[in-house]
Prior knowledge:
Elements: E1 5-11, E2 15-21, E3 27-34, E4 46-47, H1 49-67, E5 74-81, E6 86-90, E7 100-101, H2 109-116, H3 125-128, H4 137-147, H5 151-157, E8 160-164, H6 165-173, E9 183-185, H7 186-189, H8 204-210, E10 219-221, E11 224-229, E12 240-246, H9 247-254, E13 263-267, E14 271-278, E15 289-294, E16 302-309, H10 313-321, H11 332-337, E17 346-348, E18 366-368, H12 376-402, E19 409-412, H13 419-429, E20 433-436, H14 441-454, H15 460-466, E21 469-473, H16 479-494
Parallel strand pairs: 1-5, 5-12, 9-10, 13-19, 19-20
Antiparallel strand pairs: 1-2, 2-3, 4-7, 6-8, 11-12, 13-14, 14-16, 15-16, 17-18, 20-21
Helix pairs in contact: 1-6, 4-5, 9-14, 10-12, 12-13
Amino acid sequence: MPQDFVVAIDQGTTSTRAVVFNHNGRIVASGQTEHRQFFPQAGWVEHDPIEIWDNTRQVIGMALAAANITRHDVAAIGITNQRETTVVWDRRTGQPVYNAIVWQDVRSQPICDQLAADGGVERFRDTVGLPLNPYFAGTKLVWILDNVPGARQRGERGDLLFGTTDSWVLWNLTGGPRGGVHATDVTNASRTLFMDLRTLQWDQAILDAFGVPRAMLPKITSSSEVVALAASDSLLRHTPVAGVLGDQQAATFGQTAFERGQAKNTYGTGCFLIFNTGTDLVLSNNGLLTTVAYRLGQDQPVYALEGSIAVAGSLIQWLRDNLKLIDSAAQAEPLASSVADNGGAYVVPAFSGLFAPYWRTDARGAIVGLTRYVNRGHLVRAALEATAYQTCDVLRAVNADSGVPLSELRVDGGMVTNELLMQFQADLLGVPVVRPVVAETTALGAAYAAGLATGFWDSLADLRANWAEDRRWEPTMEPAQRERLSAQWAKAVTKTYGWTENADPAPGI
Length: 509
């Protein structure tokens, strides 16, 4: 029987999806289910890992049913995931010892401060490419070991496993307590603070500094290789799991940004720009992260610079759920378009501090420039524009580090359907913004990695041939206007600094 499809599991921050792709890289069918968000305290964000796994099984069934196919039609499975979100579970029972601590969570800042007391926030940067920041998985794991009763002792005995959500899904999909494979790929491992970017192995000296038992950590694989087969009780039983990438690296792969100097920006819950630096490991001087973009089999790893923005689409959720300014995300664009500009108002969504290129853990969100003239249309427009401004901040840092000005920006993610935002992004950048036909590039990238490993696709050239442009936005704004707006935004950002009393400003990388 011909195997005409690849299934990608996309375990994201707000939902889990399964997407069926054909050989042309087009979506055949999908299933999607949201999971709950828990906010136990200010700055804390959690998910229920059991709910995530239950949803994963559900959406696989939804996608297969919608496509009218079975496992016999599927050549491979790819997994992509919200990075840094940390799960710790019992290897014998499969029960998590605590909720998943989400990448946005900042509770581990005191752990970062303690580690930074000897060497500063850049203490491990030459090895791992990252600053000490609660964004990354390593300090979240330490918080669980230190705060969940008995967790450290169980971890040291080898009873507990740690992973980001790719590892959690993979372990359950391949059998769970009955022989599940405990692994992660190089892209997710590079977001823990534990992996040496050059050797692609866990660094024992760093694990010792963090006090993390090595036995808890997953095996590190490449992004594209057969890792295991789905368990016999899965709807996809015996299908090879052959691709694993963190969501932003998967989106880069799905955009076929395989060459040095190519870049993409994903507009999702957060906003993430990745700039391919090829096989060269480039350490940033301008507040960016150094990360692994992907590794195919036993090939040399491909590296990237990344600018991570904590809040993008989740700001629109906040307008809907907390402020009740809109009833649905779809209302944001028409309401923002009802006004000519932001009315002088700026929204800086530093809900959990500011990520790249500022790295200010002491910052908190602010709305500035308010007058009686400002209405809800202006506020919604300012919220949309905040994503474009933050992207410009990151791209300036990319240009400074790479020395190669960007000629165009490939975009993807849920917010790219917002044409007002895309035009404003092109105007601020002064370069074209390009949306592909398949905007769901995160799932597509995981599918591509899995399909390459199993021969479903023969080469990167096959994948490039699938990419097609859907829409292009050319800049229309005058340079003087661009500079004036950018200066006002920069002023607004400074108003968010110093709002927390127990966190010192964290310098840039």
